[in-house]
Amino acid sequence: MNADSSSSHPPIEQELLECPVNYTLKLIGGRWKTIILWQLHQGPKRFGDFKRAINGISERILAKQLKELEADDLINKVLYAEVPPRSEYSLTPLGQSLEPVLKSIFQWGIRYGPYFVDKPVSSATSSGGDRPAANREVNTTKEKKRV
């Protein structure tokens, strides 16, 4: 087998073959996309509906995430020729196929969310993953040595 045989597939197809979970998370992962998809699972929404329903998302980020989901064919955007202009977002059939995944995430959150109530979630508390915990450990070790 030569070195080029592993690259016989286009990069996206190769990535999908190597790890479908990673590929799927690239499409729906991140802080906001799953929340946007969950909102659309409940029915079509306008831009303002998302702003009211999703705390902490800026208009710029919301617009960016909606464009990415639309480009990935997970959502539709319908523009109405009205004054003032109006647009509405809904799930495509491909986006609707994520319903069982979204429901599973929702159910997992209901069931196990209470476990995390008093625990910091590393990805939500810092951009450095587990670095704060590692730093605390080092500080604790140094304090023990001083005593």
UniProtKB/TrEMBL annotation:
Pfam families the record matches: HxlR
InterPro entries for this protein: HTH_HxlR, WH-like_DNA-bd_sf, WH_DNA-bd_sf
UniProt keyword annotations, A-Z: DNA-binding, Transcription, Transcription regulation
Entry keyword DNA-binding: yes
Domain HTH hxlR-type, residue spans: 19-117
Region (Disordered): 122-147
GO molecular function: DNA binding
Top-level taxon of the source organism: Bacteria
Record-given protein name: Putative HTH-type transcriptional regulator yybR
Gene assigned in the entry: yybR_2
